[in-house]
Design a protein that fits this description.
It is a single chain. With 275 residues, this protein is mainly α. The protein has twelve helices and no strands. It folds into two domains: 52 residues, no CATH class; 208 residues, MetI-like fold (Orthogonal Bundle), CATH 1.10.3720. The chain is globular. The two termini are 46 Å apart.
Length: 275
């Protein structure tokens, strides 16, 4: 009887916790569907008679939202490809080969995780200024890639360590060289870790604002976070457009998490078995 009561209490707690967690998201959806002054209302209702999709129509037709969306996809997908390619190959070298400077390189990679990207923004800005890469997507990609690579390499290296070397030795006995055994054996087995690397790289660049605000100064190059910031001014903020844009921005992330959820747990846990 006591166990049944305990189960009911846990269920009630989880329901309440879920409602508390979901309500702010539903509130943002409600603001995006209601009139412009909906943000200042004291009502707890999520939707009312004034709810409509006018804000979304205005977002798509009267702003540069699709330009910002294209720019964000261009930067995020490029950073994702760079992260997956460099992390998968670099981590493989650290996992399988013993060379001079290997331990120092691993310590250096781990040490870089102690410093946030904003702390490194000034030296990055000076470097990109000398290379004439300020106000360019390529300069932004360099910063994003350099900040996500240490974690991606470390995570991939830990996953490679869990794969028996005997599989590669068997492949080489069958005539495969190092690259073929890596491409045909190791990479397919490492799909969970590759998904984590891709997802982390994409997420780090998709919604980032601070670095993009410093590097990108041309409105035509604005990514989604910079574009949404234009709805805010010193006199007023267009909360309806802000909320609608935030909802649209979150959709690709939700789709990625749902579609790749089966890889997330195995990719993170197996990658942490060995250091």
């Amino acid at each position: 009887m006591n166990k049944k009561i305990e189960t009911i209490l846990i269920f009630i707690f989880l329901v309440i916790f879920t409602l508390i967690t979901i309500y702010p998201v539903l509130n943002v959806i409600g603001i995006s569907l209601r009139s412009e002054n909906a943000f200042n209302t004291k009502s707890l209702l999520l939707f009312d008679k004034s709810s409509s999709f006018k804000t979304y129509v205005q977002l798509f037709t009267q702003t540069d939202f699709f330009l910002w969306l294209r720019n964000s996809f261009l930067v995020s997908i490029s950073v994702t490809l760079i992260g997956v390619i460099l992390a998968s190959t670099s981590a493989y070298a650290l996992s399988r080969f013993d060379f001079e400077g290997r331990k120092f390189g691993m310590i250096a990679i781990l040490t870089t995780q102690m410093f946030p990207a904003t702390m490194l923004l000034l030296p990055f800005f000076i470097l990109l200024s000398k290379l004439s890469l300020i106000n360019s997507f390529f300069g932004l990609m360099i910063i994003y890639s350099s900040t996500v690579l240490p974690f991606c390499i470390w995570q991939m290296k830990g996953f490679y360590d869990t794969i028996p070397k005997a599989l590669e030795e068997s492949a080489r006995l069958d005539g495969c060289n190092h690259f073929q055994s890596f491409y045909k054996i190791i990479l397919p087995l490492s799909s969970p870790a590759l998904v984590i690397t891709a997802l982390f790289s994409f997420m780090s660049s998709w919604s980032e604002y601070v670095v993009a605000a410093i590097i990108l100064q041309d409105p035509k190059l604005y990514t989604l976070p910079l574009g949404l910031k234009t709805f805010q001014s010193s006199l007023a903020t267009e909360w309806g457009l802000y909320a609608a844009g935030a909802i649209i921005v979150s959709i690709p992330v939700i789709i990625l998490f749902i579609s790749l959820s089966k890889y997330l747990v195995s990719g993170l846990t197996l990658g942490g078995v060995k250091g």
